[in-house]
Amino acid sequence: MRAVIQRVRRGAVSVNDRRIAEIGKGLVILVGIGPADTADTAQALARKIAQLRIFEDEYGKMNLSLLEIGGEALVVSQFTLYADARKGNRPSFTESAPPEVAAPLVDQFANFMRDLGVPVQCGEFGAHMLVEIENDGPVTIWLEK
């Protein structure tokens, strides 16, 4: 399981010109699922992200977690995180999990974040989405479990 997390002041997702999700201060989390990923992988990644200290404290140091600041999360499925562009000019996506495996794991990941106390909104799995990210910092981190 791979995630690109971006610390944001605001994030939103629209599908077919209709806003389906929007958050304030927190994280936009782009999540890619691999074929070997499980609910345990999703839970471990959710815990890591919720507790990752990437928000500034009163001294300007990245020392606070999403949980500590009471931030929100916007979870967006992103199979292209498993792109392989080593050969040729067209990326291959054969390393990403098929939709019937990936969709439930993205939902489980979001639910694990909720279980930890994070307010979560989600994009729409498999849809063409417009993702608005007002990156704060900028802070962008890539994680893999």
TrEMBL record:
Its EC number is 3.1.1.96, 3.1.1.-. It comes from the Bacteria. SUPFAM superfamilies: DTD-like. CDD domains: Dtyr_deacylase (cd00563). One of its GO terms (biological process) is D-amino acid catabolic process. It catalyses: glycyl-tRNA(Ala) + H2O = tRNA(Ala) + glycine + H(+); a D-aminoacyl-tRNA + H2O = a tRNA + a D-alpha-amino acid + H(+). A Gly-cisPro motif from one monomer fits into the active site of the other monomer to allow specific chiral rejection of L-amino acids. This is D-aminoacyl-tRNA deacylase. The lineage of its organism: Bacteria, Bacillati, Chloroflexota, Anaerolineae, Anaerolineales.
